[in-house]
Amino acid sequence: MTPAPKATVPGTLWVGASDFGWGSLGKLTLILDEMPDVEAVLHPNSAETGVLVSMPPRSAPDGLRPTAALVVNDPSLADEIAASGVPVIYVDSLPYLRHSEAELPKHALVFCAQKWPGQPAELVGPLAGLTHIQWIDPIVPRSSRRVGGRGTVLSVGGLRSHLSGDAPIAYIDKVLIPAAEYLSAAGEPVAAICGNLPDWACTRLRAIVPAAAQIGPTDTRAFHALLRHADRLITSPGSTTMLQAASMALPTVLLPPQNLSQFLNAEIFTSGSEGIAQWPTEVIDRKRVDELRAGGEDAAIDYVYRQVAGLLHSEHDALSVRQAVIGAIEAAPPGGVLSADLRSETMRGAGQVARIVRQTLLAPPLASPTEEFSR
User: I need a surface site. Which of 14, 25, 158, 165 has the fewest CB within 10 A?
Assistant: First the structure.
C-alpha cells in the first residue's frame, strides 16, 4: 500500500459530522480526499461511526489547539467549536430542509450551502440574507465512467438517528427484504446490498441472494466502485447516493423515504412518479408530514419513524408496503427515475470546500466570528 503523503499545509484541522445516517460522514470523507496534504483529526464529540465511511481513525489529542475546523450538518458541534475561538467552515448539504434558525449554526467563518435542482433565485426562510454563505456544487465522488455488468445494487444507507427507535428494523424487514426477495424470484442478479445492516439482516439477505458479492456496511469509496459496475440501483432516496447515480447515468429506482429529507429528495431529484415507491397513506400521510414540519424537523421525523416502526405490528400495512415496493420496481422506466437535468449539473463541491479550508489554514482570521450571521 502506498503511504499517504505527509501533510504540507500548516496547522491542524478538526473535523466532525452529524451522526444522522451516513450522508454527512460520507461527504466529509469526500472533502478530505481532496486535501491529503492537510492534517485532519476527528473531533472527540463527533460521530463515532466515522470509521465505517473511511473517516480519520484517530481523535484529537487532549490540549490540541487546531487552526480551523470543518463541520458537516452538525450545527451544535459547529457552535461548540466556534465558542472556543476556532474558525469553523460549515457545510450544509440539505439547505432546502431548513425551516428555522435553530437548524443553523450561530457562529461560523463560512457557511457552505450545497446547491439543489430548482433552487429559487431569491431564498426565503432562515438562509435568506446570510452574509457568510457560499454556494457550492453537490458533494459527490469524482465522476467516472460506469462499466456495468454486475447486476443490481440495493442500498438503504445509514438507517440511524437519535429518534429512529425500531424504524430501521421495520424498514429492513418490510422494505429491503421484500425487494431482495422479488429480485431473487425474478432471477435478476444482485451485485450488492449496502447499508448499516445488523448481523441478523445480513444473514437473511445472504440466504435470499447468496451470489451477492457484498452485503452490509460499505464505505464511501467501495460503494462508488459498486455503482460503477452496477446495471441498476434500488435505493432509499438519500441525496448523495442519488447524485452519484446521476453522475454516471445509472438507472435508479427509489424505495420509500426513511426520514424528512428523503421525502424532499425524492421530489427534487426525480421526474415523473413511476419507479418511486410511496408509503401507503394509511402508513404515512404525506400531508401530515408537512403539517408537522412547521414545528421543526424532529416533530416530522418522529412521526415518520413511529409509523414505520408500526409496520412490525400490522400485517395488513406491511403487505401494502410490499406491494408498493414491488410495484415501483416493476414500473420503473429503463432509464430510471432521476431527472435527466442532473447529468448536466457540475458536481465539484468537495474540491470547492477543500479550497476554502486550505485558504483558512494558510491565512487564518485573527478571531473566529462571535456574532450571529448578519441579515
Answer: 165
Give which of 168, 216, 193, 218 is closest to 29, Cα–Cα: 218
Q: Decide: 75 and 91 in contact? Cβ < 8 Å.
A: no
Q: Helices (DSSP H) in 72-176: which residue ranges?
A: 75-83, 167-171
Give first-to-last CA distance, the chain, whole Å: 50
pLDDT in tens, 220-275: 889 999 999 999 999 999 999 999 999 899 999 999 999 999 999 999 999 878 89
DSSP H stretches of helix in 72-118:
75-83
Q: Residue 128: is its pLDDT beyond 70?
A: yes
Q: How far is CA 327 from CA 192, 254, 323, in A?
A: 21, 11, 6
User: Could you tell me if residue 59 is inside a domain?
Assistant: yes
Element (H, E) at 38: none
Whether the per-residue pLDDT at 59 is higher than 80: the answer is no
Q: What is the pLDDT of residue 5?
A: 53
Residue 146 lies in a domain: no
Asked if pLDDT for residue 214 goes beyond 50, the answer is: yes
Residue 240 lies in a domain: yes
Domain assignment of residue 373, yes or no: no
Of residues 312 and 124, more confidence is placed in 312
Beta-ladder partners of 113? 92, 135
Nearest-angstrom CA–CA distance, 241 and 64 = 35
Residue 54, pLDDT > 90, answer no
**Cα–Cα distance between 73 and 16 in angstroms, integer?**
9
What is the grid cell recorded at 362? 494558510
**The CATH number of the domain where 26 resides is what?**
3.40.50
**Same domain, yes or no: 196 and 129:** no
| 8 A C-beta contact, residue 287 and residue 263 | no
Same domain, 335 and 356: no
Amino acid at 356: I
Q: 212 and 133 in one domain?
A: no
What total of structural domains would you count in the chain? 2
The order of strands in the sheet holding 232-235 is 214-216, 190-194, 152-155, 232-235, 252-254
Same-domain pairing of 89 and 170 = no
293: containing domain: 152-344
